[in-house]
Amino acid sequence: MISVIYKKEMLELIRDKKTLVFMILLPLLIFPALFGALAVFASHSIQKEQTRTLTYIVTGANALNPVLNKLAEQTDFKRYQGSLPQDIQGLIRQQKIDFWLDVSPQYLQEMAGNQQSQWKLYFNNASGVNSAVHRVERIIRDINTELTEEKLLALGIDADSVSGVLTPIKLVNKDIAKAKESLGSKLGGLVAYILLPLCLLGAIYPAVDIAAGEKERGTLESLLITPSTRLDLVMGKFLTVFSASFISAFSAIFSLAFWSFIFAQGFAIEIIAKVVGTLGIFDLLLALLMMLPLVMSVSALVLCISIYAKNFKEAQNFMAPLSFLIFVPLIAAMMPGIELNWQWAFVPISNVALAIKEILKGQGDSMLLLTVWSSQLIAAIALLAFATYWFKREAVLFRT
Q: Residue 205: which residues within 8 A CB-CB, separation 6 or more?
């Protein structure tokens, strides 16, 4: 009977246009289009800010000051041609200039006395994307390097010894982490962070539709009078939600790989081949296997909530906090210094994200991984048992 109920529920879901939107259209087309457009827009905005011409004013600098020549040599800098007002900061607020560099009037005397000269850079970074500071700092850094070399040469230090005087010790970093460890640590947290919310999104609408939705439509009673047991009904509906959840998640993965191939072509294939080659097919499959009981738990949980809800709207309201409850443990698992141990092994959701990270790094403790997998499976079974219990109670099924 479970297979009959499962087929019936899946057919009804497939015929529903809303379900197709949530299960296939959103992850396959809409999400990639939104994220792709956002990435293109962000990249374009950053590039535009980094390359736009900056209008500036320099005060306090005489003709001997090197900053005037340095700024004049830059093709993406333009000196303000108008008359200087008393309130130069007002020009920055009015966006007539991008920055004002106020040079110390005692610059030459300070240089002659080997003193540090302090200059003031005025700019408006209210938008948080002003590139003036970084671009001016780059120019000042070049001037500092030239002046330092000149001063050292004047003191009798030859050009070959300048770097040894300025930086007596140079630290060369040697990371002994294997490529698998490094890539697995970075990718491990993201796998659960991306897949689980997608599974939740794919599970919510089908769960609401086949439980609370049937209450609202008045079709639940016809199911209850069939020869099937309440356990058969719950399992059939659970498998439907579980299937919809996985279809949604893997539609998103397929879509990401497909559009990456379309836009990046050979480069995308090279990256995918490198990731698979470094991590290994077995570990990737093991990571997905680790997620199975967690997705089962999520599917059972949304089904429990939907069974309890009186109607479609109430079920949607109950589902709203779920995203928050799932994202917080996922974010905790991605924090630096958090590793899988016996304490974290029993923290729901976080334990799976940490376990996936350990699997992809190739350092997983088999006992810890088995504990994580078993605990999630027990949670899924408990939630299914609870859903079955609620399905047997008429006070829950026919709440008013």
A: 18, 19, 22, 23, 244
Residue 55's CB is within 10 A of a number of other CB atoms, namely: 19
pLDDT at 297 over 70: yes
At 238-279, the pLDDT tens digits run 888 888 888 877 777 777 666 666 665 555 555 555 655 555
- Residue 379 and residue 297 in contact, taking contact as beta carbons nearer than 8 Å: yes
Contact yes or no for 276/283 (Cβ under 8 A): no
State residue 349's pLDDT score: 83
What predicted TM-score, i.e. pTM, was given to this entire model?
0.65
* CB-based contact 372:352 (threshold 8 Å): yes
Task: For 321-379, give the DSSP string.
Answer: HHHHHHHHHHHHHHSTT----TTGGGSTTHHHHHHHHHHHHT---HHHHHHHHHHHHHH
Among 361, 208, 231, 385, which residue's Cα sits nearest to residue 287? 361
Segment 191-235, tens digit of pLDDT: 777 777 777 877 888 888 877 777 777 666 666 666 777 788 888
C-alpha 311/C-alpha 287 separation (Å) is 37
Half-sphere exposure for 13 (CA within 13 Å, toward CB): 33
Closest CA to 300 of 382, 198, 211: 382
Quickly count: other Cβ atoms within 10 Å of residue 62's Cβ.
Answer: 10
Longest C-alpha distance within the chain, in Å?
101
> pLDDT tens digit string along 66-108?
888 888 888 888 998 888 788 888 888 888 888 888 988 888 8
Residues 6+ apart with CB under 8 A from 175: 182
The reported pLDDT for the residue numbered 184 is: 61
**Nearest one of 167, 54, 74, 169 to 121, comparing CA atoms:** 54
Cβ neighbours of residue 392 closer than 8 Å, sequence gap 6 or more: 230
Helix (H/G/I), strand (E/B), else coil: 79:
strand
The two structure tokens encoding residue 340: 């899988």
DSSP percent split of the chain into helix, strand, coil, nearest 5 = 70, 5, 25
356's CB contacts (< 8 A; 6+ apart) are 188, 189, 191, 192, 287, 290, 291
Which domains does the chain carry?
2-37+178-397 (no CATH), 54-166 (3.40.1710)
